[in-house]
Each structure stands twice: as structure tokens, then as C-alpha cells.
Amino acid sequence: MNDLLILQITIFALIATGFFLKRTGIFTKEGQKNMTDLVINVVLPCNIITSFSIDAGPEVFLDCAAILLISVGIQAFCVIYGKLLFHKQGEDRCKSLRYATICSNAGFLGNPIVEGVFGDTGLMYASVYLIPLRVMMWSEGIAIFSGEKNFASMVKKVATHPCVISCVLGILLMVTGTTLPAVILTPLSTLGRCNTALSMLVIGMILAEIDLKTIVDRTVIWYSINRLVVIPLVVYLVCLALPVNAEIRGISVLLAAMPAGATTSMLAAKYDRDPGFATKLVVFSTLCSIPAIMIWSMVVSL
How far apart are the first and last CA of the chain? Predict the structure, then answer.
């Protein structure tokens, strides 16, 4: 049994476990929120820092620059694509659709997937890729719902995000060649190794809230096809034409093939922009992303 198949079975088993824990009431809504905060604010930052603990040659810095530029290009494409694709939708739906096209769940779901397929080096590149996405989330993303662009607020939120801070620290450690002492590195590494398991458990808990009778919507299906198939396909074809290696191409495609970010429904509720529809986008695209990500994982591993 090859490593990719083992990874896919493991992910499915973890998601199923999270589903069971939520459906049986072992984990409550509050417990799910606490675990999500734990992953984003503690476990994932530890994982990111340790992923930069490699011997970096010139090619690593070039690859970091390449994936950063690719990510900027993808974000620009998604901004334009979302406007063109959904402009005929009602105002409230259009806002959620545009935001969800720009701000996927790559930061939460994408990291463990990339780590599983490409290892620690892949996670390092994924951390760099996610910087433009997080900038867009707190700038253009907020502006879509609120109609306002507060540059100072955006800078503060991006600069203080635990994952961004850990990425900057990791880059500094890599550039300076600094090796953390074992008394620090070992706890960081131990916590970081929990990332995939905890992230997949939370995804399973999200899916446990699904009522298929209420989330099937023609617009939601159309969005999911574009988010999970069309956008990563465009990224794949463009990367084939660029002078980048298979690893950078594969990471870019996988992170482009992520479902709508959970913040879509949160912001829709905050600004009273049809939060029910936004929740359908998040839940349905997350459900569909399981087979889609597995297929893209096989494609980029060829």
C-alpha cells in the first residue's frame, strides 16, 4: 500500500472519528470551538516553526519566492473571477460567493493535507503561500461585506496572526541558520505533530452538522465545482507552463483546491448578509472537498 493511499485512509478515518464525536455529543459546540482555537493559535504555529528547521540552500529561497508570487497571482485571479462569475446573483449571495472564492479554507484544512503529501518542506512552502491569502482575508475580504477598507486594522490583524508570526520566525531561523535548543524544539515538534489529527477531527465535527435536505442548492453546487475543480485546474495548467518544480506546482494546486473558509458564514452573520446561504457554501463545499482533495492529491503525485 503506497504512502498516498495510507494518508487518504488516515484522513478519512480521522474525519469519521470527528463526525462520531460530534454526533454522539462527546464534543459540544463549545468543545469544537476550543479545539479549533487550539489548532490555529497553538498547534499549527508550532508546526510551522519546526517546518523551517531545514538546511536551506539558494534553491529553497527561490522556491519560497516562486510560491509567494504564484499565491499573489491566484489571489488576484480569484478576485476577478469571483466578480465575473457571480455578478448576476443577489447582493447578499454575491458577497458570500465572492468572499468564499477569495478566502478558502487553505489555512486550516490545507496545511495538514500538504504536510501529509509533501512532508515538512511542503508545510514550509504552504506557510509562505498562505501569507497573501491572509492579507486578502483581512482586507478585500472584509471590504466585500462591510464596504470599508481599514488599512490599519488589516495590518494589525495580519501582523498579529499566530500563523503569520510563526512563519516570520521560521524564516528568520532559516535565513540565519539558527538551530533551536532541544529543550525548545522538542516541545514545539511534539505539539506540531498533532496538527493533522486535530484538524481532521474538527472537519469531521463540521460535517456532523450537515442536513443534506437543506444544503442542496444549485448555486452552491456551481460554486463548489468552480472552487474545487475549475480554480485548481487553472492553477495546474498555469504552473505547468511556469519554470517551477513539481513540488511547488503540487502545493499550489492542492491549496487552490480548498473549500470555502469558515469565516464566510461568520462575516455573513455579522453583516446580516444571508448567513444561511453562506453556511451552505461552507458546509457543502467542505463535504465535496474530501473526494476532490483526494483526487488532486493523486494528480499532483503523478
Answer: 16
Helix, strand, coil fractions of the chain, as percent rounded to 5: 80, 0, 20
Per-position DSSP letters for 231-278, written without gaps between them:
HHHHHHHHHHHTT--HHHHHHHHHHHT--B-THHHHHHHHTTS-HHHH
Per-residue DSSP letter, 104: B
pTM recorded for the entire structure: 0.84
Work out the number of other CB atoms within 10 angstroms of the CB of residue 185.
14
Separation of alpha carbons 158 and 106, rounded Å: 16
How many domains would you assign to the chain?
1
Q: How far apart are CA 288 and CA 153, in angstroms?
A: 34
Cell of 161: 496572526
* CA dihedral over 152, 154, 157, 158, signed as positive or negative: negative
Domain ranges, residue 124: 3-300
Q: Which residues pair with 104 in a beta bridge?
A: 260
pLDDT tens figures, 217-235: 899 999 999 999 999 999 9
Identify the pLDDT of residue 239: 96
**The pLDDT of residue 1:** 45
pLDDT at 250: 96
Q: Does the pLDDT value for residue 105 go beyond 90?
A: no
pLDDT, one tens digit per residue, over 20-41 is 999 999 999 898 888 888 988 8
Q: Which residues pair with 260 in a beta bridge?
A: 104
**Hey, is 217 helix, strand or coil?**
coil
Q: How far apart are CA 258 and CA 35, in angstroms?
A: 20
Query: Given this model, what pLDDT does residue 20 score?
Result: 93
**pLDDT at residue 178 above 90?**
no
Closest CA to 215 of 133, 135, 128, 283: 283
Q: Which amino acid is at 92?
A: D
Task: CATH number of the domain at 12, please.
Answer: 1.20.1530.20
